[in-house]
């Protein structure tokens, strides 16, 4: 039996029909990190990057991307989001910035893709704004951290 839901009985890709599903509060959190040279991290932390407020722009880009996920990911439902947050944490010891994005809705389908899109886009924006001084930055560990709501209930990374 095929458990992938984006294929019909003939194996063709299709958008899943969520019309019969109940509307519930749904939330998902995704995260990732970008590693860089120590000097690049200092420029971002001190607000001294030539392009301006790197994390402010990255936060806005992540929120905007979450709202457009249905336009970016084929077969992904357009969702009316009720809340999106994008937060950053400096990891001085490893010259990195961690990103954590949460998307929420009251709807018939989950927001995992919206959270993942927000985190990925925020990290890509940091790269874009700093690539002139550090082309060797590495975006890594982008993954779903937690999801709540819907038929499958609560899931957290690292739990069985």
Task: Specify the number of helices.
Answer: 4
Low-confidence regions: none
Structural class: alpha+beta
The 3D shape can be described as: elongated
Rg of Cα set? 18 Å
Distance between the termini: 22 Å
Report the major sheet. Answer: 5 strands, antiparallel
Q: What string gives the helices and strands in order?
A: EHHHEEHEE
Biggest sheet, spatial arrangement of strands: 2-3-1-4-5
The CATH superfamily is known as Molybdopterin cofactor biosynthesis C (MoaC) domain
Number of structural domains: 1
CATH class (first level) name: Alpha Beta
Tally of extended strands?
A: 5
The overall average pLDDT, rounded, is 90
- The CATH architecture category equals 2-Layer Sandwich
Strand content: 25-35%
Oligomer: single chain
Helix-residue proportion: 25-40%
The CATH topology turns out to be: Alpha-Beta Plaits
Active site: 128
Family: Belongs to the MoaC family.
Pathway: Cofactor biosynthesis; molybdopterin biosynthesis
Keywords: Lyase, Molybdenum cofactor biosynthesis
Describe the protein in words.
This protein is of the alpha+beta class. It has one domain: 2-Layer Sandwich (Alpha-Beta Plaits). Helices cover 28% and strands 29% of the residues. Strands 2-3-1-4-5 form a five-stranded antiparallel beta sheet. The protein is elongated, with a radius of gyration of 18 Å. The chain starts with 23 loop residues before the first strand and ends with a strand.
């Amino acid at each position: 039996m095929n458990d992938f839901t984006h294929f019909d009985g003939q194996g063709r890709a299709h958008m899943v029909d969520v019309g019969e599903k109940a509307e519930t509060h749904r939330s998902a959190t995704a995260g990732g990190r970008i590693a860089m040279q120590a000097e690049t991290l200092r420029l971002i932390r001190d607000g001294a990057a030539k392009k301006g407020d790197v994390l402010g722009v990255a936060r806005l880009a992540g929120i905007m991307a979450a709202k457009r996920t249905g336009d970016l990911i084929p077969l992904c439902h357009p969702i009316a989001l009720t809340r999106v947050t994008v937060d950053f944490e400096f990891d001085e010891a490893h010259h990195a910035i961690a990103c954590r994005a949460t998307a929420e809705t009251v709807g018939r389908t989950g927001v995992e893709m919206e959270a993942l899109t927000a985190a990925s886009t925020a990290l890509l924006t940091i790269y874009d704004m700093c690539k002139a001084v550090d082309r060797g930055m590495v975006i890594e560990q982008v993954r779903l951290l937690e999801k709540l709501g819907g038929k499958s209930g609560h899931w957290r990374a690292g739990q069985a």
